[in-house]
Structure formats: C-alpha cells, structure tokens
C-alpha cells in the first residue's frame, strides 16, 4: 500500500483553463502510475498550485527508489512532452522524501496554436 496525500488548497481551478487542468491531471496520473509500478514507494504527495501568478504548478514527490529505477523513464518522457506542448517546464529530480520529485509549471495564458 502507498500512503498518498493530495494538496490542492493553493489551486484556484476557476482561473485554470480546462485543457491545462486536464493536462496536469494526465501528468499526475502518469506520475502516480510510475510510483505504483516502478518506485517501490510507501508514500507519495501531490500538490497543485496557482500561487505563482500566471502559472499552474504540479509537484509530485515519492519516497521510492529514485531515478535509478530505469523502467519509468518512458513515462518521464511523456510527462515532459505534455508540459512542453503547453509551453511549460518539467523536471524530474531527487525528492526531499528520498525518491523522485516531478515538478511541472505551465503558463495560464497560452498561444492559440498550442491547444488546437
């Protein structure tokens, strides 16, 4: 079993365009899938935020094996691509919990061609 915490207290969904909200959900789902399948984690946290003006952000942390577990790298590529398509940033780095931290930041204002 994995203990999961979701913090969306700093996420103002009303100011996030639906296509960005859906994309962040897809990235969170892929991160959670990687945690369950590959990380060997016992704990995970997911946090959504719109605290930084003009951006929606997602942070996913786990206490699993870290980036040394190669099986999840295809998922990392997919998450990176989703963020890139929304003119956002993506990083996968060591987590303060000991496993992996996925950090995504997406601008709320998008050029029209990104979501056609």
Keywords:
alpha+beta, 32% strand, 2 helices, 116 residues, 5-stranded mixed β-sheet
How would you characterize the overall build of this protein?
With 116 residues, the protein is of the alpha+beta class. It is built from two helices and five strands, in the order βαββαββ. It has helices spanning 18-39, 73-85; strands at residues 3-10, 43-49, 55-62, 89-94, 100-107. The protein has a five-stranded mixed sheet with strand order 1-2-3-5-4, covered by helices on one side. Helix 1 (18-39) packs antiparallel against helix 2 (73-85). The longest helix is centred in the first third of the chain and has 22 residues, at 18-39. The chain is globular. The N and C termini lie far apart (40 Å). 30% of the residues are buried.
Given the structure, what is the number of helices? 2
Look at the structure and give the mean pLDDT: 89
**SSE sequence, one letter per element:** EHEEHEE
Q: Reading side by side through the largest sheet, how are the strands ordered?
A: 1-2-3-5-4
Low-confidence stretches: none
